[in-house]
Write a structure and sequence with these properties.
Structural class: alpha+beta
Order of helices and strands: EHEEHEHHHHH
Radius of gyration: 23 Å
Distance between the termini: 51 Å
Shape: elongated
Oligomer: single chain
Number of strands: 4
Length: 180
């Protein structure tokens, strides 16, 4: 299980010193040094429980002489929804969400083991919640596979944001339903 270690300091200098001491002391990953208003900085560390505890203690000891330590805290078994609060650790990495895109292998792939199958993006009837779970790359592939153009004709799919892609896909889907 992964743990989250937090070291809150006053000032960027002491947070850098604390982060450096922490990552040198134990096998932890430095997620971020989040700068908060008023000169407060929170260093976020991720790793095994024992490693994070050792790293936080080392970071705390490194900045005691600077007298800028606000607080330290270790969350031993972080819930996957709590990890969504961290901007460097998306929710999908902590607990993979299921994409409801069915994979339909081609007849050739069924006969040949070892061939990678890709999702079949040709089926209309997409739902907003399923599209929002997809990555931007998957949405772009879906748009290209179905000849979907963006609502803003001047913009290329290559440069479209997730919200623009979702709107364009849903618009095409509703147009197809109206035609039937």
């Amino acid at each position: 299980m992964e743990a989250l270690g937090l070291i809150e300091t006053r000032g960027l200098l002491s947070s850098i010193v604390a982060a450096d001491a922490a990552v040198k002391a134990a096998n932890v990953k430095l997620l971020d040094a989040e700068i908060i208003k008023g000169g407060l900085v929170t260093v976020q560390l991720l790793g095994d429980v024992a490693a994070v505890q050792a790293a936080v203690e080392a970071g705390e000891n490194a900045i005691t002489s600077l007298q800028t330590l606000i607080s330290v805290h270790v969350i031993p078994r972080m819930h996957h929804e709590t990890s969504a609060l961290l901007k460097k650790l998306p929710l999908q990495e902590a607990a993979p969400a299921k994409l409801e895109v069915e994979i339909q292998p081609s007849p050739e792939a069924e006969n040949k083991p070892g061939i990678d199958t890709k999702p079949d993006y040709s089926t209309p009837g997409w739902k907003l919640e399923n599209l929002e779970k997809m990555t931007v790359l998957q949405l772009r592939q879906l748009a290209r596979a179905n000849d979907i153009t963006l609502l803003d004709q001047a913009k290329n799919i290559k440069y479209a944001r997730k919200s623009e892609l979702v709107q364009a896909i849903l618009a095409k889907d509703s147009n197809e339903k109206k035609e039937k």
